[in-house]
């Protein structure tokens, strides 16, 4: 009897020690995720501060020009990167893609993206929308952005969450510093789209160079490799939603800016204000994806419904405040020049609910192994917006109404698809 007690004592101590180690590791991972989210929140704050500085020191017209260049760079990057950052992360982490190969891939795709973006710019030059220097600068900025994005995918697989979050937030912080310096020197400089494009080129090039230095410190070799087409095929599921989302913003700002530069600036400011309410959900999405992936279909549906309910309560409160006090909020935050466009802020505040639900929808589809369902809904939103713009829009406010209606129509389509599919954990319909 004594020997039995004596034998069990070390086992008990070992079990307690293992439990303590697991608890410590778990708390360390949670703290790491919280820290990474806080750092990424810095990037989101920097992006909003850029819009705030442009509004306060430059005015709607300056903000409109800046936002149009940013939207074009974002759209070109999303189109030309073809989902490679997600594919590079997956295959580097799996051991099928060496770090050195991913670095070469980033450089080659970045150069190819610059050439293709330049061809896009030549079309704009022929249509009289830009001069050749501006088109070349935007093309170079798009190429450097593609290069940075692919390096970011590689860094996620070999660096800590904290290091990845810092690298993710870096471009927004650099752009904030450059914009602040230019506005402090002479706010009229920001009216030059060529100079704005150079600003983005400098920010992404500097961050890309920093990423190369970090990857050289974590060199990893592999006896296996994957082809470019294999990478692109893997990344296409995440590519389509990104292209559609950036395309909607680019088309909207481009259409409005052709009619009024000030209206385009006010639209960009209103979109920035609405994005504040969506930022917490963007930061929580990786945690939701990780949680929902391990759940049964019924449990996943239950949590999705609860998440939608919580999001709807928050977004309805936010939208009600902005809609009801739009003039006061616009004057306080952005300045008196934006008050004539208070209706834009009121209408675009209604985007918060469908955009938040769309984010949850994307996470649900990805966790269930059906990311293509999310792609279908995003493509439908882009198609509905373009059709509405062509058929019904006559002035900037019509374009904003069309944007809001297309978002809600896309969410309605998503709910119909949700009712028709059961999201099995194996990725197959059951």
UniProtKB/TrEMBL annotation:
It comes from Povalibacter uvarum. Its main location: membrane. Keywords: Cell membrane, Membrane, Transmembrane, Transmembrane helix. It comes from the Bacteria. The chain crosses the membrane at residues 30-55, 75-93, 105-126, 132-151, 163-182, 194-213, 234-257, 263-283, 304-326, 332-352, 372-394, 400-421. It is a multi-pass membrane protein. The keyword Cytoplasm does not apply. It is found in: Cell membrane. One of its GO terms (cellular component) is plasma membrane. PANTHER family: O-ANTIGEN TRANSPORTER-RELATED (PTHR30250:SF11), PST FAMILY PREDICTED COLANIC ACID TRANSPORTER (PTHR30250). InterPro entries: Poly_Biosynth_Transport (IPR050833). The keyword Phosphoprotein does not apply. This is O-antigen/teichoic acid export membrane protein.
């Amino acid at each position: 009897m004594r020997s039995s007690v004596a034998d069990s004592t070390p086992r008990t101590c070992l079990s307690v020690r293992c439990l303590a180690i697991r608890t410590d590791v778990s708390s360390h991972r949670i703290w790491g995720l919280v820290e990474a989210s806080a750092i990424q929140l810095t990037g989101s704050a920097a992006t909003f501060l850029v819009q705030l500085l442009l509004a306060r020191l430059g005015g709607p017209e300056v903000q409109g020009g800046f936002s149009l260049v940013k939207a074009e760079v974002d759209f070109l990057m999303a189109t030309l990167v073809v989902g490679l950052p997600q594919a590079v992360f997956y295959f580097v982490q799996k051991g099928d893609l060496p770090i050195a190969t991913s670095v070469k891939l980033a450089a080659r795709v970045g150069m190819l993206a610059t050439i293709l973006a330049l061809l896009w710019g030549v079309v704009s030059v022929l249509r009289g929308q830009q001069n050749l220097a501006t088109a070349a600068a935007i093309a170079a900025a798009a190429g450097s952005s593609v290069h940075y994005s692919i390096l970011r995918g590689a860094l996620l697989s070999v660096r800590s969450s904290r290091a990845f979050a810092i690298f993710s937030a870096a471009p927004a912080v650099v752009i904030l510093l450059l914009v602040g310096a230019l506005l402090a020197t002479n706010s009229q400089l920001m009216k030059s789209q060529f100079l704005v494009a150079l600003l983005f080129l400098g920010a992404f090039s500097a961050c890309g160079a920093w990423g190369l230095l970090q990857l050289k410190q974590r060199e990893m070799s592999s006896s296996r490799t994957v082809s470019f087409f294999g990478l692109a095929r893997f990344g296409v599921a995440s590519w389509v939603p990104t292209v559609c989302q950036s395309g909607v913003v680019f088309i909207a700002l481009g259409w409005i800016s052709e009619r009024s530069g000030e209206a385009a600036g006010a639209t960009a400011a209103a979109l920035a204000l609405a994005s504040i309410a969506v930022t917490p959900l963007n930061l929580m999405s990786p945690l939701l994806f990780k949680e929902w992936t391990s759940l049964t279909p019924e449990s996943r549906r239950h949590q999705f419904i609860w998440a939608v309910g919580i999001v709807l309560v928050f977004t309805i409160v936010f939208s009600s405040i902005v809609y009801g006090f739009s003039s006061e909020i616009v004057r306080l935050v952005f300045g008196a020049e934006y008050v004539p466009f208070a209706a834009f802020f009121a209408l675009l505040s209604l985007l918060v609910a469908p955009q938040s639900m769309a984010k949850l929808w994307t996470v649900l589809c990805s966790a269930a192994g059906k990311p293509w369902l999310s792609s279908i809904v995003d493509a439908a939103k882009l198609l509905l917006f373009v059709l509405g713009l062509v058929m019904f829009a006559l002035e900037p406010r019509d374009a904003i109404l069309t944007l809001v209606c297309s978002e809600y129509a896309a969410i309605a389509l998503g709910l119909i698809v949700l009712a028709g599919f059961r999201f099995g954990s194996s990725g197959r319909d059951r």
